[in-house]
Amino acid sequence: MSMRPAGLPEIPEQTVMVARAAFPKESLAIRVRDRLAEVFADEPFSAAFGVRGAPGLSPGVLSLVTVLQFAEDLTDRQAAAMAVRAIDWKYALGAELTDTGFDASVLSRFRTRLADSGMERVVFDRLLEHCKEAGLVAAGGKQRTDSTHVISAVRDLNRLELAGESVRAALEALAVAAPLWLAGQIDITEFAERYGPRVDGWRMPPSQTRRDRLAQVFGQDALALCRAAWAEDAPGWIREIEAVDLLRQVLVQTYIIRSDARGRQVIRKRDADDGVPPGQLRLASPYDRDARWAAKGEDLFWMGYKIHLTETCGTLPDADADADADADAGSGAGSGAGVMPNLITDVHTTDATVPDVKATAPIQRKLTERGVKPAEHYLDSGYPSADLITKALKQGTRMVTPVLLDHSAQAKAAGGFDKNAFTINWKSRQVRCPAGRTSSHWNPVKQHGKDAIVITFSVLTCRDCLFQRQCTTSKPGRRMLTLRPEELHENLARARTEQKTDTWKNKYALRAGVEGTINQALDLTGIRRARYRGLPKVRLQHAFSATALNIVRLDTHWTTGPLPLDRPRSSRLERLSYQLSA
């Protein structure tokens, strides 16, 4: 398939006439075409298409269809139908009224091509660049970030179901790719009876003994298939089939193969004593190799991914003081100069096991690369660390975020002496305790790959101290402190002190508005449920979801002016009650 760069076609006169008559006040699709046509060009997609072969459909047109599809939360079939029967969609796509559209499968193939070529963010980035040129987004303002869970598009499986379903998935793939080879390796009739229907916990035997026997059968079948696939006389491409490779990984992660007293190999399911792979490596489904199990708190437990949304909030850097004050108060809009719609500037998708703190640096790096680096970045307590706060300050970004407090036993008990009670002399490399005694050792070390300093007081110094029981409970009877390097320690201490003030708390209230953005993305595009399998396609889904959300917000800005996206959610009666009580 080849591409002939042309961009969106000219709108036929008859389509224009009918669309204008049918939509005298226009519609989202019509305004997107009139104002953002240059965003949906063909040239950025040239690397994903060849120069020879039959010409395919315009990637610019298909990307516009995909954005409108996500803006209205449509399936592929519904989007293809809208391209045929919706007059405003025909206007947006530049199609004749008699145009019969395209098959719904074209959208799936288009997404696959983009995901395979790493172009899932092309439209999102082009729209962001357009907004920069239009003065709607700029570097140096305020932005906020938050994350939410994303449920994968596959079934939740327990370990026994996973073992059996992995064998079934490999058999299904081999039955299509290498039927004759498979027939020479296994008893087709026996395996068809065992793995014909999908492996489901409801169909499994109720007794634990029979379940253990079934787990062993699954393991023996998986081992037999893997030995056949990795045999010397087996075709090499057999092992490259994804379902076969995943079966091998599930076999290693779920079972242990050992030799018994007679020298025979025995396979058995792993238990807690044998150890299991960490969550970021452990497969959760034979149909989605990137989905992972994760938990958040005591109530949320899911299999899938995690998405981080970053958006502008408040005013542009050159806004007047009144508009900036309105934004700080959480209005997000107003009549003052510089007040703009809150637009998503970055969307970052990971597997479910990646903690928020690991996403901070990549998000800030991408914002810098796109020329929209914020002066203030509002985040919750899961994102910061002393290293990240210091690095961001050096690069011109102040992270407004609650940092984790001191976790020492003294700080948790609110008794005795925590780190703040000690005076640190960085030049002489000594620490003075509240009793006026100095440390004996200053040892720079590496802890978890990061620089740290371990401070130790002598046993002789602490033994006869009147405050020993308040200071330490260690068996040797001496106090030890672990500090970060000077700059990191000072920044962390300053942040901990600052976040206790009312001024900081009022300022940090601006971050809460991003919760409404996640809610809007959920209502508009169903962002918490993956439509596709695999991290590349889920990233594509989220990039188009963010693009659709930006277009909806731009459309609101065009038609009604900037609205208060962070409007209070309390009722008028509640607000009256607050006013009277004040």
Main traits of this protein?
582 residues, 43% helix, 13% strand
Report on this model:
By secondary structure, this protein is of the alpha+beta class. It contains 23 helices and 13 strands. The chain has helices at about 15-20, 30-35, 60-70, 75-85, 85-95, 105-115, 120-135, 160-175, 180-185, 190-195, 210-230, 240-255, 320-330, 355-370, 385-395, 410-415, 460-465, 470, 485-500, 500-510, 515-525, 535-560, 570-580; strands spanning about 140-150, 255-260, 265-270, 290-295, 300-310, 345-350, 375-380, 400, 425, 430, 440-445, 450-455, 480-485. The strands form 4 sheets. Strands 1, 4, 5, 6, 7 and 8 form a 6-stranded mixed sheet that branches. Strands 11-12-13 form a 3-stranded antiparallel sheet, with no helix packed on it. Strands 2-3 form a two-stranded antiparallel sheet. It is flat.
Number of helices: 23
Strand content: 5-15%
Mean of residue pLDDT values: 87
Tell me the structural class: alpha+beta
The largest sheet, given as strand count, sense and whether it forms a barrel, is: 6 strands, mixed
In the predicted model, the low-confidence regions spanning at least 5 consecutive residues are 320-338
- The tally of strands reads 13
Distance between termini?
69 Å
- So what's the overall shape? flat
What gyration radius follows from the Cα positions, in whole Å? 30 Å
Helix content: 40-55%
